Amino acid sequence: MVYDPIMGPQAWPGGPHPAALARMQAEAQAARQAEIKAARDAMRASGTVCDLEYDNVGGTGPCGVPAAGRCIRCSRAFCQSHQSSRPLYTNLCQECQTQEVAQNRRAAEQRAATEQDRARREADEHAAKVARHETKAGWAEAKEKMARLDELIGKSYVQSPPSQGATAAALVLIVVGVVVGIVACASSPTGAGVALGILLLPMGWAAWTLAMSTRQSRREERIRERNKLERARGCGDMTCERCKYRQ
Fold first, then answer.
1. Which of 30, 99, 186, 238 has its CA 20 to 30 A from that of 170?
2. What is the DSSP letter of 2?
3. pLDDT score at 6
4. pLDDT-derived band of residue 38, with 50, 70 and 90 as boundaries?
5. Which residues of 194-203 are buried (b: 16+ CB within 10 A; e: fewer)?
6. Global model pTM greater than 0.70
7. In a 10 Å sphere around its CB, with 0-12 CB exposed, 13-18 middle and 19+ buried, how is residue 97 labelled?
8. Burial environment of residue 77 by CB neighbours within 10 A (0 to 12, 13 to 18, 19 or more)
């Protein structure tokens, strides 16, 4: 368990109960307020007055109100009215607070502008790299081939492609049917007719299975070919985050 002056109590799993953390944070804040009050009282007891100027009908002049603190930036004493109104700048006077906020805003705008310039420069460099690679790899021709392959892939869709076991069984059945037909024809024409009649339905299933298996294999081959052609797209770097969606 540690206490961070900005984030408050920090706990790891198994640490104090959330209610205990909230109590510790409240106690730390109360202690901080007590320190600020003690410093303010000591400043007032010393007789120090506010060094900042204020505007009135007669012009500008020193505030002169009993001081409540001293600015860590300009070292001038300030009263509660001239103390920074922002929680993060309570050790600054109002004038330094205004300067600090403006400076932080300018720094943030500068960082944002620098980041935008960097992102724009990287985008331009990547676009040039993509153009070079796609020209060298023949992306225009590859895109036309991919369009033709997409059309063939769509037409060759098989809703329920046969399994490898069914394909193997179909091959065996066709071989057996051919052998039986040859043997039957050699023995007698009548036997050949009977054998072919018996094998007609299984042979038809085997032929359909082989046709669907061949169609599915050809479709998978075209998909692999299409994916290979798509590598001509982008900058050519397979690990490129900008081109990842293209792969």
1. 186
2. E
3. 45
4. confident
5. ebeeebeeeb
6. no
7. buried
8. buried
Tokens of 198: 């018996």
Give the number of other CB atoms < 10 A from CB of residue 69. Answer: 23
Q: Which residues, listed in sequence order, are joined to residue 35 by a DSSP beta bridge?
A: none
- The residues that bridge with 8 in the sheet, in sequence order, are 4
Q: What's the CA gap between 59 and 46, in Å, rounded?
A: 28
Which burial class, exposed, middle or buried, applies to 165 when counting CB atoms under 10 A from its CB (0-12, 13-18, 19+)? Answer: exposed
Residue 247 has pLDDT above 50, yes or no: no
Q: Is the pLDDT confidence value at 85 over 60?
A: yes
The angle, 0 to 180 degrees and rounded to 10, between the axes of the packed helices 139-155 and 189-229 is 150
Percent of the chain with pLDDT strictly greater than 90:
11
Contact partners, residue 145, CB within 8 Å, separation at least 6? 229
Sign for the CA dihedral angle at 151, 153, 136, 123 comes to: positive
Judge whether 170 and 210 are in contact, CB under 8 Å: yes
What is the pLDDT, as a whole number, of residue 184? Answer: 63
Strand partners, 10: 2
242 residue type, one letter: R
pLDDT digits (tens, 9 = 90+) for 158-184: 777 777 787 787 777 777 777 766 666
Where are the alpha helices (H) located in the chain, listed in sequence order?
Answer: 18-45, 94-137, 139-155, 164-187, 189-229
